[in-house]
Write a structure and sequence with these properties.
Length: about 300
């Protein structure tokens, strides 16, 4: 009797376990293998929005679908136009993007870039702010506790700040350590940025008046290679390492940090986006958006 009850209990536990939702891996081709998805974000309802670094399109993938649909078409902006950063702000129904257009006939290559926003539901254009200078690289951004948008200009060692409700951004910080600035994220109200050229992680101190100070180099207990897109979740930083094909979780403790690799073998991962029990990844080299379970 005891043996029979034990078997019966085991069967019941298996059945109950099968009813518990769990994160599972997914791979979604974005257009084709040459689409070079550089950044991605999650909109309300589980809609995945993905930019392309090889075409003038932004794609969306509806929840439960494996098909990428064109959402934004910037083909009239000039030959070679493409997209980097993507960030959905559900509170204002806004999709923030970085749009880059090469300057024709110039060697070495120069790009005029713009911070653009679109209606998150319809894709209708909203705001456009052109980054200063003849050559810029609008790359990635994050929304701060003050609701302002903080924007990285990789080529010019700068962070810009677009206050909530404003139409023009202002220079927040320019520093030589930021030459190569890429990922931007707020962790527990503090701004962190990484550098895709030097492989460093920095904290940006801000005084009581809101003025940024000299970037503080965070010592990591193991090297990262090509830190790119970066987001915060569960009190940690999640970063895509485009140079090593890895996704890592960084735990910051003061001016030091520990690095834990949670995914390897990716083909040039350039962005991450936490969404509940899932982490979405832009696998630029494979033309895919892929997902992995969020570590417990």
């Amino acid at each position: 009797m005891f043996e029979w009850n034990t078997r019966r209990l085991a069967v019941c536990l298996v059945a109950l376990t099968s009813l518990v939702p769990s994160a599972s891996a997914a791979e979604i081709l974005i257009g084709d293998a040459k689409s070079q998805p550089e950044s991605l974000t999650i909109a309300p309802g589980g809609v995945l929005i993905v930019g392309s670094a090889s075409t003038p399109f932004v794609y969306k993938v509806r929840a439960g679908s494996a098909t990428a649909e064109k959402f934004i078409d910037a083909s009239t902006e000039g030959p070679g136009t493409f997209f980097f950063g993507m960030l959905a702000d559900a509170s204002t129904n806004t999709l923030w993007t970085c749009q880059l257009t090469p300057v024709a006939g110039v060697t070495p290559v120069q790009r005029h870039t713009a911070l653009r926003s679109f209606d998150l539901t319809t894709g209708a254009p909203k705001l456009r702010w052109n980054l200063p200078g003849n050559n810029s690289t609008c790359n990635d951004f994050a929304i701060g506790p003050d609701k302002a948008l903080y924007l990285a200009d990789t080529a010019n060692s700068k962070i810009y700040k677009l206050p909530a409700g404003a139409s023009t951004a202002e220079l927040f910080l320019e520093h030589r350590a930021l030459y190569g600035i890429d990922g931007v994220a707020f962790l527990n109200g503090t701004l962190y940025v990484n550098n895709v050229f030097s492989n460093n992680l920095y904290r940006i101190p801000v005084d009581a008046a809101g003025k940024a100070g000299v970037p503080v180099d965070i010592w990591m207990d193991q090297p990262v290679s090509g830190p790119d897109g970066m987001r915060a979740a569960n009190g940690k930083l999640i970063v895509a390492e485009n140079g090593s094909g890895r996704i890592s979780i960084i735990t910051v403790n003061g001016d030091k940090a520990s690095v834990k690799v949670i995914k390897e073998g990716l083909n040039t991962p350039t962005a991450v986006e936490p969404a509940g029990d899932t982490i979405w990844i832009a696998e630029r080299g494979a033309g895919k958006a892929v997902s992995i379970p969020m570590p417990k």
